[in-house]
Amino acid sequence: MESFVLLHNNLYPKSAQILMQNFSNLLEKLQIPTEKSHSIVLEHKFLPFIERAKYYKRLLALLLESQTENRKILICDSQSLLETKKFLKILCQESELREILNKECSVEIDILELENQFVFAPQVVLDALKTASFKPKRWQGFRCAFIIDRELEKWVVESKMLNTIEEITGLKILPFFKESYDYLLEVNPQLAYQMGAADYYEMVDSGVDFILTPNIGNFELMDRNATHLKSVSGRDDLEIPLLFVPQVILALFEDSTRDSLCFGQHKILPKML
């Protein structure tokens, strides 16, 4: 089987740790080989304060390294996926930036080849589940909200990823394509709480048992800052937890426990297992 290099956004280390611990466990269980793991702070909304060439250089270096080693990058969160897609689009459109990066990395960038150097981790996981032994439909009777970046709506619909997750898990999934407001935590926390609370309680009021996300920023805002969201909203309920995609998939295996799924590290404790 093809070996992968893992990549995830590390803007929020504690939230990222929960995601990556579960992904590492899941990949091992599915016998998907990985060689190494990389983390980068990825958030294009900070670009006015960061030199663009410096911001993109490390991402380019990882793409080039994986190309040289003949390994694909397995992108573990939606923010990193979105940033990688945006970066390649910018390389196509802006010859000046491309030339700067060519010079700094001592390469001649081949954009078409780089487009084949990465894949979104849930796609690989769902494909591997076709031959795995697990308890299907374990989430039968549960409803969840799936919140993901608005810019990925077309891709999510065309890939039919949610349909596949429903078929495997038994979940009823309600999609919510939203702008992620986690970046406001760095510049205007109060506004971040207000915007996050509006999205969180919209999903809660749709009658779901939990919220599913592949976005580390959403988890950081809505779980780790949950008490702030509750406070600014004037609500007295804070019971609907957020889960990452690998946690939901891992729960299909009989040997999974609350501890192995890192449920105890959540601010809103999941109580469904």
Low-confidence stretches: none
Helical run tally: 13
The value of Rg in angstroms is 19 Å
**N/C terminus separation:** 32 Å
Q: Order of strands side by side in the largest beta sheet?
A: 2-1-3-4
Q: What would you call the shape?
A: globular
H and E order: EHEHEHHHEHEHHEHHEHHEH
Q: How would you name the oligomeric state of the polypeptide chains in this document? A: single chain
**Helix fraction bin:** 40-55%
Helix- and strand-based class? alpha/beta
Task: Explain what the structure shows.
With 273 residues, the protein is an alpha/beta fold. It is 48% helix and 15% strand. It has a four-stranded parallel sheet with strand order 2-1-3-4, with helices on both faces. The model has no long low-confidence stretch (mean pLDDT 92).
Please summarize what this structure is.
With 273 residues, the chain is α/β, with parallel strands linked by helices. The chain contains 13 helices and 8 strands. It starts with a strand and ends in a 23-residue tail after the last helix.
